[in-house]
Amino acid sequence: MSVGIDESKRVAPESITLTLKAIEQRLDYWLPLSSEREKVSMAMRQGTLAPGKRIRPLLLLLMAQDLGGGSSTTGMLDFACAVEIIHAASLILDDMPCMDNALLRRNQPTIHCQFGEPVALLAVIALVSKAFQIISQAEGIDEKAKNSAVSELAQAIGLQGLVQGQYQDINEGHQPRSQEAIALTNHYKTSTLFCAALQMAAIATGATMTVREHLRHCSFNLGQAFQLLDDLSDGSNETGKDPHQDAGKSTWVNVFGTRKSEKQLREHLDVAYHYFAQACRHRQSTQYFVQQWFEQKLAMII
Amino acid sequence: MSVGIDESKRVAPESITLTLKAIEQRLDYWLPLSSEREKVSMAMRQGTLAPGKRIRPLLLLLMAQDLGGGSSTTGMLDFACAVEIIHAASLILDDMPCMDNALLRRNQPTIHCQFGEPVALLAVIALVSKAFQIISQAEGIDEKAKNSAVSELAQAIGLQGLVQGQYQDINEGHQPRSQEAIALTNHYKTSTLFCAALQMAAIATGATMTVREHLRHCSFNLGQAFQLLDDLSDGSNETGKDPHQDAGKSTWVNVFGTRKSEKQLREHLDVAYHYFAQACRHRQSTQYFVQQWFEQKLAMII
């Protein structure tokens, strides 16, 4: 059963716009452009500040609010920026010639096309280390919480996260794969960073281990839904990426077709909503935002 | 004036051997091989555990001891491992085809030659994130110190550290450069990680800001000396790297010759020793170790 949207609980678009602006201003602060000669910092800025959905930092901030923390504090914004910076680094890396060899991202030439491979690579490394530096210096968040956040984010990047996802994708993506194998790759590629975002909100607000466990289940399903949406969008002009990048790949959509994939997506969303409700019993802006967001995107592509 | 070695203050080789063994056992613990199929973890292990000098983690542990901290605690070993892992990641990156395109490192084919470019790249990212994870989980070190260590290490990697050094090296290394420009590149390429190693020892032992400032000056000079030694070794069979990798590059040795470079190296060492003595007034194992180490290496190549 898909949960309908209760109009009265819609998250005000103005509030989202303001939050997005705050995220981008803070990213701009953390990624200054020292001079036009500094190609690496230009690449870091370009890769991160080019228009994007900012879904991960938004989720982090909305969840922090739902859990009763201050989503507008500078420290919480810093956590959100760290997650977005890792996401940006992962996109630059995935686009590299030896990976997906993509030419277009966010409607612009990919970073290695603009700046060359060495600069793109150095920008990835600098972004990853910057994300950890930002967390370690986040204002007004206690020391233990910052260390837990470093640990969560590191886990989402490494062999149990983005690195594993990208490895499986380049290694097995063009071979026939089982439903479970595709789901596992999507888990590493997408769910782990969603998980880090929600966990970091929980860590910063001092949520209980039970809440963190609910959020873990929630983000695993949210990540699957998000990856299915991404696969369903392949070939549409709305992605800002090389069209039909997934042609010949064993994605859910290519193997099981659009209708089954959409059904699967909605099932994952329903499970995610269940855990959202378990984790935040009083405020549910995150869940309502996610519902709105997916309905809007699905309406555009299906 | 070069400081001679007081034989009575030599660091016992057995003590260094034991420390090296402890570092390598702890690296082995942090970089487990899950299965032969896991190419990325194989590359991470190979890049880090292949025989190396381990000079950075050794300096960290010796300095922690000189500053009165327990160098044999697991947490201190973890800090040392994090620094060595970043060093290993930087070597894999610098060897990549789009960087130095090196074939040989530590007498073995470079990581991208063994595992291919995508795996080498993913191993670099996984190693960088693992280093931060290790610091955040280091046993028995207080939370604030762990955050400071994350911040120091991140700074040593990014635009003010290894990334900047590698960028300058590939961009300007093959053009004529001034003495100052070469020293600046060496600062970013080498001194910054030495600096992070000594700062992390100081952070973990709760050293004063004055001590930390002395160690900063010390490591800047130590890094220059180390890079000069590396340049002087180019072409010797002892490096385990592609011989004459620096041919045509504007290194100190290529521009000013062997004799002037050795003189410059000894001047940097003398300044480093001065600051070692300022930082640790009671115990000076680190300084004696460095003296022994450099004399031994210089005797082999000059």
From TrEMBL, chains A, B:
Ranges annotated as spanning the membrane: none
Claim: Metal-binding is one of the keywords in the record: yes
SUPFAM superfamilies with a match to the protein in the record: Terpenoid synthases
The protein's required cofactors: Mg(2+)
Keyword terms, alphabetized: Isoprene biosynthesis, Magnesium, Metal-binding, Transferase
Gene3D superfamilies associated with the record: Farnesyl Diphosphate Synthase (1.10.600.10)
InterPro entries in the record: Isoprenoid_synthase_dom_sf (IPR008949), Polyprenyl_synt (IPR000092), Polyprenyl_synt_CS (IPR033749)
UniProt similarity note: Belongs to the FPP/GGPP synthase family.
Protein name: Polyprenyl synthetase family protein
Lineage, top ranks: Bacteria, Pseudomonadati, Pseudomonadota, Gammaproteobacteria, Enterobacterales
